[in-house]
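Worked example 2:
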Amino acid sequence: MKKINIYLFIIISCFITFSSCKKKSELVKSEVSADEKLRFSSVISNTLDFNTLQSKINIKLNAGSTSQSVSGTIKIIRNEKLQISIAPIFGIELAKIEISNDSIKIVDRINKRYLVESISEYREALPVDIRFETIQSLLLNNIFIPGKEQLSEKDFSSFSWRTESDGQVFGKVKNQKLFNLDFALNRDNELTRTSVSTNKGENNLDWKYSQFQPFNGIYFPYKSEINYSDKKNKCDIVIGYSKIELDNNINLNFNIPSSYKKIDFADIFKSLTK
């Protein structure tokens, strides 16, 4: 279970590293069709409308020699904060992760340790404008542009588009400086894939969505497959959602016992490389 907590930290780090980064790219010169505009309009309207969200989740992890499955709960206050609680044994919480607009918190109740990091520290260390909304979009199957809270039909021109013979549509966000950001839509105008990669392919995050089902007036994917790789690490995660509830009163308390040891991400990576 200790390894589970470590790899959860890695995945959260991946989200942060990739969040709201921009890459300069060559634009493919192609004729924009009215059909692509209609399909873009369709996919941005297929967005879950909520103030609060709560769902049971099942997480399957494969990283190196580790293969584990755990269950828990995700809670989100839209555009403000999210918590993931890992509680696989009779509802007893083993770990909790909280991400907000300004901080990251992790508590590991097995090893009695915790992490609290300011988002501003990452802004100083990386050429990255970290946004909570980007992480939220990845989790909830939203197409996005770094730095924008919500898209409209006017944002169609911010992408370069191409349509394949099988009906799939691919959109790339224009004018990115550090990363490629690509989206794939299927014939039903569902967002089936979000891909983020560095210029030289050193870091890659591939997020696939499937098992779309009607929910609250849209088609929501109840399964996400996440593949992350860099020069040293490779990690595959599957997230399954169930019993999604919207706009209920939710409790996002985050208690850290005074006896717990404070750590940082450097400690996490040291534990990983032992």
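Confidence is low (pLDDT under 50) at residues 1-7, 17-31. The longest helix spans residues 2-18.
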